[in-house]
């Protein structure tokens, strides 16, 4: 499979690239600066995305909103729209989005990001990722998309190959913890690329 990975040098993007290549897939990495052997492009530039996506089987969007204190939602939505338009121009239907956990529900109609104990440090980013999910749901119906939310806690760790798949609710273990390593998240994402079991919906992965 030929995969275009936008955001290839982030914590999750790097691990998705490693996992996909481990399985023999061809990965074209894309970053804003074109560093580390990646192609240079802005996700919001539909023409650039289309040119890079041409000939690929799938696109993975793994970009995060700005973390410099500036607005988070408009830049991420611009990136999302650029990628959706770029895929259409390139004739590529398969899109997998590295999403956030904040939009997962802890109770019917209550998102994790809206709970009192949600950390302020991550709130703007979580709201932006939730807005991206809304955009994909509203505007990507003509594409084969999947939005994958991690567990509430994700960080570098062990590659075990073990994970569970949920839907729109926070997925926790028997001790009430919602967590997954970035390595196992990458396994779940590449599994979805290979199996196409969650096309047209959001899933979450956790231990």
UniProtKB/TrEMBL annotation:
Residues 7-194 form the NAD(P)-binding domain. One of its GO terms (molecular function) is oxidoreductase activity, acting on the CH-NH group of donors, NAD or NADP as acceptor. Pfam families: NAD_binding_10. Gene3D superfamilies: NAD(P)-binding Rossmann-like Domain. PANTHER family: FLAVIN REDUCTASE (NADPH) (PTHR43355). This is NAD-dependent epimerase/dehydratase family protein. It comes from Actinomadura rubrisoli. The lineage of its organism: Bacteria, Bacillati, Actinomycetota, Actinomycetes, Streptosporangiales.
